[in-house]
Amino acid sequence: MSDKIKPQHLERKAILYIRQSSVYQVNHNLESQKLQYAMKERLRQLGWRQIEVVDDDLGRSAAGTVTRAGFERMVAEVCLGKVGAVAAREVSRFARNSREWQQLIEVCRVVDTVLIDQETVYMPRQSNDRLLLGLKGSLNEYELDLLRQRRWKRGVPKPNVANSLWLHLSVTSRRENNA
């Protein structure tokens, strides 16, 4: 257990955020999904009993170009002080743009919520952790820019709204069939 996790964190629920960026990833990168869902066990080992899984954003990019209802709901729950930890297998799952990333870090700092990934527990109230999270956010955004540049150079078109709608319906249908 991390010394950054305090009783006041464990008294509130943890949210495990699951996201994949595209229809292709949702349909073909099933191992990634399994690994992301497996983070629930890490949260249990760290002491959480109440864990909510937010997977509404499967197939939705975190680049800031589409609305992510799951992310928005997670941030709202954090703002209300109901969440002791937000977790993802990799912190890059949360956001790939500075605005959403910095918003999440700041809200977590204000209400004393920790961020957790597969390797580390981050406490945004600690300046070193805030610095590390800021660097990770900048690197995530830089990586996204590189991917866009490569796609543009290859002449691959940007995903369109029709594909996003198809994915949303596909994921929703899959969830209802598995329920």
Strand element count: 5
Over the alpha carbons, how many angstroms does the gyration radius reach? 16 Å
Q: Determine the strand fraction and express it as a percent band.
A: 5-15%
Helix content: 40-55%
First and last CA, distance? 33 Å
The largest pleated sheet is described as: 5 strands, mixed
Overall tally of domains:
1
Q: Enumerate the spans where pLDDT stays under 50 for 5 or more consecutive residues.
A: none
Descriptive account of the structure:
By secondary structure, the protein is an alpha/beta fold. It has helices spanning 7-10, 23-28, 30-37, 39-46, 69-79, 98-111, 127-154, 161-178; strands spanning 13-17, 51-54, 83-87, 114-116, 121-122. It has a five-stranded mixed β-sheet, with helices on both faces. Helix 6 (98-111) packs antiparallel against helix 7. The longest helix is centred in the last third of the chain and has 28 residues, at 127-154. It is globular and about 50 Å long. The termini are far apart. 30% of the residues are buried. The model has no long low-confidence stretch (mean pLDDT 83).
